[in-house]
Amino acid sequence: MSRESDLREFVERLKTAAGAKLTAVVLYGSGADQDFRKEHSDLNILCLLQSVDAAELAKLQPAGLWWSRKSHPTPLIFTLRELQESADVFAIELIDMKARHRMLLGEDFLTAFDVPMTLHRLQVERELRTSVIRLRQAFLRLSGDRAELTDLMIASASTFATLFRHALIALGESAADSRREALDRLAAKIAFDPAAIHTVLDLRDGKRRAGEVDHDRTFAAYLDAVTRVAEEMDRRLAAP
Questions:
Q1: Where do the DSSP E strands lie in 68-185?
Q2: Overall number of domains in the chain
Q3: Which of 19, 31, 129, 196 could be bridged to 221 by S-S, CB 3.0 to 4.6 A?
Q4: Could you tell me if 175 and 78 lie in one domain?
Q5: 66 within a domain of the structure (yes/no)
């Protein structure tokens, strides 16, 4: 089935399971805009229900299982009140949802959704550090296959690109319109070499083939660059 067929089928399964208690279904992230890449982009879904308890989750479970067996990420389940009350600790995610989303069911509540920025700087700092740690951990699990290393860099590059955009915001800059713009502007702002990250984005976008890249050297430079960003943002955001 195609992406659109999967989305339509999933919404129908959710409606059948939850009925009127399902108030909104949102596709968000790269799957909702022109940055979608079939090989690497996920179909991220947010569902709003009037209430969420064990009984409601049990009703949704068959639809969720069907969706996960399609190799799509498990959807986020919230009530609108929960989303509003947790917006301060999920500022990065909700700012991005507001910027890139498509309503599959219900009225568009995200465009006017208020995202408090009180904890945004702290979240940027923490997520950068956490992402570097996870990258190191994931590398240790690799078997030595070059394809695995390529997949790891491509998968992590999406996370870092998002965090680079938010790093600019945390530094008082305007949001970037694209991943590469965010990368280049942040590199100029805090002085790191973005070349390896551009190489990984080229691999993701099909602009370069895996055989054209020195994987070990690229990963070393890539890890050095993202570590540099995490360290420098930690220093700058911790400054009074």
A1: 76-78, 101-105
A2: 2
A3: 196
A4: no
A5: yes
Could you list the residue range(s) of the whole structural domain that residue 7 is in? Answer: 3-105
* Residue 113 lies inside a defined structural domain of this protein: no
Residue 240 pLDDT > 80: no
Q: How far is CA 29 from CA 35, 175, 185, 222, in A?
A: 9, 16, 21, 23
Same domain, 225 and 134: yes
pLDDT in tens, 166-206: 999 999 999 998 999 999 999 999 999 999 999 999 999 89
Instruction: Enter the tokens of residue 161.
Output: 């690109």
Is there a contact between 226 and 160 (Cβ–Cβ < 8 Å)?
A: yes
- pLDDT tens by residue, 12-58: 999 999 999 999 999 998 888 766 556 657 899 999 999 999 999 99
Strands (E), 85-223: 101-105
Task: Please check whether residue 42 lies inside any domain of the structure.
Answer: yes
29: left (phi over 0), alpha (psi -120 to 50) or beta: left
Paired residues of 105 in beta bridges: 25
**Dist CA 36 CA 102 (whole Å):** 13
pLDDT at 34: 63
